[in-house]
Amino acid sequence: MASRAKATIFDIAREAGVSKSTVSLVLQGSGLIRPETAVKVRKAIEDVGYVYNRGAANLRKAHSNVIGMVINDLTNPFFAELAVGMERVFQSAGIVPFIANTAENPVRQEEVLKSMMEQGVAGLIVSPARGTTPGAFRRLEIAGLPIAFAMRRLPESRIPVIAPDNHRGAYLATSHLVGKGHRRLAFFGGSSDLVVYHERLGGFREACETLGIDVRDALIIEGETNRKGGMACLETSLAMAEPPSAALCFNDAVAFGVMLALRKRGLEPGADFAVVGFDDVVEAEHYMPPLTSVAVDSAGLGERAAHVMIKMIQSRTTRAEDHIGAVNLVVRESCGPDRRTRKRPAATGAAT
Length: 352
Description:
By secondary structure, this protein is of the alpha/beta class.
């Protein structure tokens, strides 16, 4: 779909029932305008999708060489690797990337998006913050700005998405745990307000059902998507009358937290409790023990997102096909030996 024509000051004036000069004064932040009039004009600005300053003109003329990268959590190594992949492509193409961290805050995200629009970005790649509503990007879409989502999609949104095959990755990981003899499994971390959570949880559930794991033995414990969340999930599970012996974690950060909590209890990841992560960040290979994880090629997905954005800008379109990246399970030591063949001691603690 071709970009929609840019709204003008005349459109705002007509919508608000005021003069063009009044609109200009409001845009300049003048104190000469009555507050009630200013409120009416600002509402009209939102309604018609007007982009203030030089941003819209740059986009229309394709003169801007700046692209915004809005990331939900740069403290997570996965998203840092994703951003590096994007930046690599943009720099090679002579494009200036602006990067911002929203820290999973939708209000901060809105501020960042507005600022980048006013600075004249030619396009945006966004990993939406938790709690983002589908309408949060409506104004940008009306303005005809190319937008692509990385890693996360929003329900009922038509914005193109670059993401891994979350369902298949979780299915592979769960099948691996069942293949090692685990019959009581857990899914740790994440929350139901994330589409990616449902995709990964769906793969976990399908594998359990296909491989004969009773629904009562497939535990689901929501939690923060970081180390703290992983530690809390592990503690919750071990307090159960029949604790699990293995867990698929929402991401590697959660898995690292699980392994930390196991050690605090005197239990050894792999030997006493099997742990699988998701993302396969660089740290996973060098952790102790090395973490089994679903590899999604974070940098590669970032590169693909950047190429998609460049093509959208060059084609002057806001539409693109979704890209679902391949995944594979990288098996390391955090799952331990096969439970069906090893001899276990008489008592190994609460996690056995």
